[in-house]
# Entry
Amino acid sequence: MIIRSAEVSDALGVKEIYSQEHAISGTLQPPFPTLEQWKAKLSHKSENSITLVAEIDEKIVGHLVLLGYSNPRRKHAAYFGMAVHRDFTKQGIGSELLNEAIKACDDWLNISRIELEVFADNAAAIALYKKLGFKKEGVLRKHSYKNGNLLDVLVMARVKR
# Structure
């Protein structure tokens, strides 16, 4: 597996991941993303963000975007979103992607707080985040629409001490 910076040419592989039911229901990405939307997202690079892909045998199997805040009082913090291709779950791809993002925050980006929001029913993701040092900070009741219902979302963060 290779973890690397995402390129516009990865758009089709990233689109495939986020077109899958588990990614639609497990993230806040809207359904039916177009290839043009993903090309635009992947071409937009800012100095306070990184976008990574996981690749196996030239196939995009995971995606992570880490976005830093532009507010000067929040420059020490960032948030992220990620998904893994359904055929490659439970193989450590999410862990590898997130470990690379954490390393970038700790070693290069001067980011000491990484935040996330996760559906409260996503036990696998919550277990991964806890394993990597994220702590639950709160619950947003009936926060986001998923499969016809408003569901709770957990707010979690990893704070470098």
Remarks:
- The first strand starts at residue 2 and ends at 5.
- Residues 93-109 form the longest helix (17 residues).
